[in-house]
Amino acid sequence: MTIFDLAGLSLRTVLNQKLRSSLTALGLIIGIAAVVILTSIGQGIHRFVLDEFTQFGTNLLAITPGKTTTFGISGATISTVRPLTIGDAESVGRLPNVIAAMPMVQGNARVETIGRHRRANVFGVSSALPEIWKINVASGRFLPEDDQSASRAFAVLGSKLASELFGRTNPLGERIRIGGDRYRIIGVMESKGQMLGFDLDDTVHIPADKALELFNRQSLMEIDVIYNPDISVDIVEQAIKDLLIRRHGFEDFTIITQNKMLETMDSVLSILTLGIGALGGISLLVGSVGILTIMTIAVSERISEIGLLRALGAERRVVFQLFLAEALALSLAGGLAGIAVGMLTVQLIVEFIPALPVQLAWDYLAAAFVLSLAIGMAAGVMPAIKAARLNPLEALRTE
């Protein structure tokens, strides 16, 4: 019996038992579809998070107070660690290959104008923010390059905060009160949207030294640095480390590069996607039990057919190949149908739930399809061996 004869005979057998074949393949269809849908969600979240972190560019690094390997979490117990100062940020900004360095302090405060008030996120920064964070000014200008130890009381509003405080009125030149101090508005930022749930438009930017006074802090929360992308980050990192050790006396700070952060994030998200795919794989295992059960029952129901085949001269290997081919046909049909259902569901998610990031994970999709074929083969082996070992005379007696 040729391979085409085997394929044709096994296909006819599967098609003649439509209900049984459909129920058998249903387990694999659900399993493959679950893998496609879950890994697409995992891959979509993976890509979304990485895109969010890279929207400010990749030639970035951050300096935080506290040595993580010595003092635990970044910024721990300022009293035992020399604070990061605005002078540190200015010194880093003068290093070769450093394009700009920005001191940063962040907190939440009450923002008031005539007749309106609300709490908002307050960023204490410098004039380098538009260049470092890739945010442009929509109207007016950003904070000027003042002496960062005695800055003027200027404020720049995020687009959402400006709209809620002033409506359609031009806020430039108006006065607002942040905490207990008054500031003059000199600019409004373009809309930047959200980053990992944090609304960058619902903010107000003031000079870093004013923010230190507002939040009664001695240390900056971090110093953001943008460097020449043509230079290795290791060179820039070492230069910053040498400078701050000279200024502080020892290494009481942590440098976090964008590349290291992305590598860590990518590793964590890849494990998350793999775990999600494994959850979908459980359904595939359930489908394999279904194929094994149905094929075992099929052998018991077709003993006379097997005996007739053996009596007509079919060798044991032919009987084995026939039942194995049936199992593969069922797993192939289930795998293809599962992929189709999964891709259709992903497309429906894109259309009706656009806020949920999804992206087809083709490597997981291919792996799931190959796994479905392997499951069909594995589940069909034992029933096929059982069928091939039947004694032809004993099988014919069941007729």
TrEMBL record:
Main localisation: membrane
InterPro entries per UniProt: ABC3_permease_C (IPR003838), MacB_PCD (IPR025857), Macrolide_Exporter_MacB (IPR050250)
UniProt xrefs under Pfam families: FtsX (PF02687), MacB_PCD (PF12704)
Keywords: Cell membrane, Membrane, Transmembrane, Transmembrane helix
CC annotations in GO: plasma membrane
Keyword Cell membrane part of the UniProt annotation: yes
Keyword Calcium: no
Topological relation to the membrane, as annotated: Multi-pass membrane protein
Domain spans labelled ABC3 transporter permease C-terminal: 279-392
Transmembrane segments: 21-41, 268-297, 318-344, 364-385
Location in the cell: Cell membrane
Domain of life according to the entry: Bacteria
GO molecular function ontology, one term from the record: transmembrane transporter activity
Annotated MacB-like periplasmic core domain residues: 21-242
Family classification: Belongs to the ABC-4 integral membrane protein family.
The name this protein goes by in its record: FtsX-like permease family protein
Phylogenetic lineage: Bacteria, Pseudomonadati, Pseudomonadota, Gammaproteobacteria, Methylococcales
